[in-house]
Amino acid sequence: MPTIKDVARLAGVTVTTVSRVLNNRGYISDATRQKVYQAMEELNYQPNEIARSLHRRQSKLIGLIIPTVSHPFFGELAGFIEYYAHLIGYKVLICNSLLDRKKEKEYIEMLKSNRVDGIIMGSHTLEVEEYMNVNYPIVTFDRCISEKIPYISSDNYEGGKLATTLLIEKGCKKIAHISGNLQLQLLANKRSQAFIELSKEHGIESVIVETELNVFDITQYEAMIRHLLEKHPDIDGIFASSDVMAAYVIQICYFLNKRIPEHIKIVGYDDIKIASLFVPPLTTIRQPIEEMAKCAVELIVKQVNEEPFERENVFPVELVERLTT
Questions:
Q1: pTM here?
Q2: 3-class secondary structure, 2
Q3: Which controlled-vocabulary keywords does the entry list (predicted)?
């Protein structure tokens, strides 16, 4: 079985250099790093991850807890987190909580038993005290839970403002907002806040409907949207709090013979990759998903290395206008 000394000999470097490459420590030129990787591949060298983690007191594992990887937003987010973690030698354990409190707590215990270096929380069903007792580097998405724990979000208020303003400027007289459940106290609720304030400011009649607590259970969307449009047939503009919700609006409008954008205009939120493939292509508020994912990984690593970090990480949004408005 090849050893680290064999790798060093074949790569023409010292054992210390190979160790630094394996542990991603200190400056290593790309050329040297590539020589080490090539030598490892030729020798089929497999580093002992358990021994390495005990030696450096790091596992090079990051836990990611999200509602469900099947949701397009979280699927894209998880993909980018895994990509940027892998670039610096980390692996990601992905956990689907399905917004189940018991399941989320079990996953946290599992991640602790696997000695992860940190946890990225994209699901928030537990009480704040549960997070505070984790004693691991944590990054949260769309929820501020502590003065010490960093969080990441898009500029939700600005996104809600851009969406609502566009509907008003397009001449809508009665607009609706389909939001997540506002009891969850997420930063995404600022989208609804902006919708309410802008509607009142411009004297526009408005309606808000909320999902159930499990906002990502898409089976509820069809009935909820159909009920909204049948109860308020004069609605001519809708701001949906996600592109998936907006996709269901497009579908229900088709069944109700409401032409888009002639009879009703629609704005989504996220700009997931398939938003441009909807028929008609969806106008939406773009969150910089890739940049947010990269930041999440960097925040975990900074905490692990006891480096300074920003607690508030709010990313700008952008209006992407397509054919639904």
A1: 0.80
A2: coil
A3: DNA-binding, Repressor, Transcription, Transcription regulation
